[in-house]
TrEMBL record, chains A, B, C, D:
Protein name (record): Methylthioribulose-1-phosphate dehydratase
GO biological process, one term: pentose catabolic process
Gene Ontology annotations for the cellular component aspect, listed alphabetically: cytosol
Keyword match Plastid: no
Keyword Coiled coil listed: no
GO molecular function, a single term: aldehyde-lyase activity
Organism of provenance: Sphingomonas trueperi
Pfam families, sorted: Aldolase_II
Function text: Catalyzes the dehydration of methylthioribulose-1-phosphate (MTRu-1-P) into 2,3-diketo-5-methylthiopentyl-1-phosphate (DK-MTP-1-P).
Family listed: Belongs to the aldolase class II family. MtnB subfamily.
């Protein structure tokens, strides 16, 4: 499911435009990547607004993070590459920032939240019923990517783990076999967090 | 009020674009259909993002669900077809997913909620005054469409029933004589749920 | 500040598109009008979606509501015309529906709410400071326009009255010398209601 | 990082369109400026909707506020010019109005709020870690710009001060070396306020 550099550039530009339209790409936050035919990775460069990316906002690195084209890769490149190394089937990684997901991560000190009973769980690859519960892992933030990566890795390898995790006070990582699937996982996870918030608001109102 | 396949394709693509812009079509959720001139049904295929449908994202089935063109029909095809069989005047069915409606459905174990006193009630066909109340039925979710269909059917046949119902933890079904009317019912129902949530928030704030 | 029929049609179509994009024109709700050069009024016809109006969605009536062109005028035509008769300087009337404004109107039985201290008050014509308070009148809904009109009229004639009022469980009326000014009044009023809701949410959170 | 008048006009029109799309430019609120090559300032004129600016909605003034082209400068011109005089590196100033930021400012009588632990803090120039806290100053509103300017100035000169402040019941000022950086600061600040509101909502729900 890998793609050419040209396909990756077009797909990541479009994904950025859509994430920004949903309010998930403020300032220059976020970074997006896709695995290419030759095993290298196309990745957003640092410091660009993801809602209005152009071709020069995307560069190529190898799986060890060495630049193959000009540009300064995103500070979080290592988190993308760790996912590609860990999951050979991963073809794209998207990292977005919604106020809801980050607000949720700050409201708890737990290492994750449970999402249960949602039909939307079926958006996760391999999930075929709402009658299930999954764990969205939450890992503490760090400016050292190796620290985040080591802390989150065990949760990603648990059987039945979903292809997403949340960095506390920071944002959501989601991945999939291609950009469409990664965006599907991201949208579904954000949507369930918004639905949980609406549920809580109705519960509070009805139990006054 | 039926339409040609070409008209249905155009109308369903546009409806998907609008529902997605309102945040009601995350991931690949949702499925939309329209009854055609020849008695068959145009229906979204499984697994496409409804905000960016193209013509090949829509197929034809007969009223028993047998494919008349290539493609895998949506898993919820049977719920659409049950509505067309039950209501000869139904020309289109839309199924959307807002965080508000799903949050509401999860905050209660009741088999419905009452919407009362809204001017917006007049968006439902045959309703001519705000001085009324209607029941929006809520049915438990299932991966067996026949179970959902059997459970919801009585509520749909109650005199004065509105052309909409909510599947718990899942989403809203709405229908009408054509795509425009189905979308009107969907928008009005979602809007009233949002207004009820805003009302609850103001009430809580004012009674602190 | 009156305009030609062609100018009015273009301005009302654009206003509808913008109000719908903000979520204030669900289903076929809303009706918009503008006073024309010849003293007649251009007005949206009944039953169209205001987010995608076309020229045939707008008709002309005289100040007594007699159709001057083909079409069924909006059910609320009389409320528009009453404003034009009452306020000779009024050149346009917009009627929108936000969940926030309607939620607010349902959370209170009062005949209005006070908006105080907002810089946004300066959006109302003739208001030059935030250090003021205004009354947004709320009138009970009715299917008899004459009942609404008689009930709200005294509040509109109070010295310092703002060019807006809210019909309970229904929506907001706003007017101005032209479509731009009416839209300015509508946006400012909706924005202040949203700000009051956000204020209440922060207060609740901080006083837990 | 200064720019030509033509570049400034294009950049300010685009910024207005984007701020309005996010709901931060209701009615005719907001004013935007950019420092030009020749030391003068391009600035939005008074009374225009910032979501649909055209070239004639922008004029030039010198650093003392004297008009260099036709037009009535925004009432808040002096706040823009004070920032350019205080911070030689400032190349653009944006002033937006979100319901969230204004709601927050009305919910407290404090002279600021603390933003702590957000990855988004790195959107502020010179900030390189989330493990920090910054103060967003809040100043009382006034119709006398000199009063606001004198009251806020000390907070702006505190070491580590962020390039943003909030006027109570009014809106947010943000600045940067160019329009992109000013918009980045504005988006990041608004986003963190929205995240704090979501956090508070989840906390309330979970501690019922």
């Amino acid at each position: 499911m890998t793609m050419s550099y040209e396909q990756a550039v077009a797909a990541l530009i479009e994904a950025g435009r859509r994430l920004d339209a949903r309010g998930w790409a403020p300032a220059t936050s976020g970074n997006y990547s896709a695995r290419l035919d030759d095993g290298s990775v196309a990745l957003t460069v640092s410091g660009r607004h993801k809602g209005r990316l152009t071709g020069d906002g995307i560069m190529r690195v190898d799986l060890d993070g060495r630049p193959l084209t000009a540009g300064k890769p995103s500070a979080e490149t290592d988190l993308h590459l760790a996912l590609y190394r860990l999951f050979p089937e991963a073809g794209a990684v998207l990292h977005g920032h919604s106020p809801q997901a980050v607000g949720l991560s700050r409201a708890t000190e737990a290492d994750g939240i449970t999402l249960a009973g949602h039909e939307m769980l079926k958006a996760y690859p391999g999930h075929t019923t709402h009658a299930a519960e999954v764990r969205l892992p939450i890992v503490d933030n760090s400016q050292d990517m190796a620290v985040i990566e080591a802390a989150i890795r065990p949760a990603l390898l648990v059987p039945g783990a979903i292809p997403a995790y949340l960095i506390r006070s920071h944002g959501l990582y989601a991945w999939g076999k291609d950009v469409d699937e990664a965006e599907r996982v991201l949208e579904a996870t954000e949507w369930m967090i918004a639905a949980e918030l609406a549920e809580a608001s109705f519960r509070r109102a009805w139990t006054r």
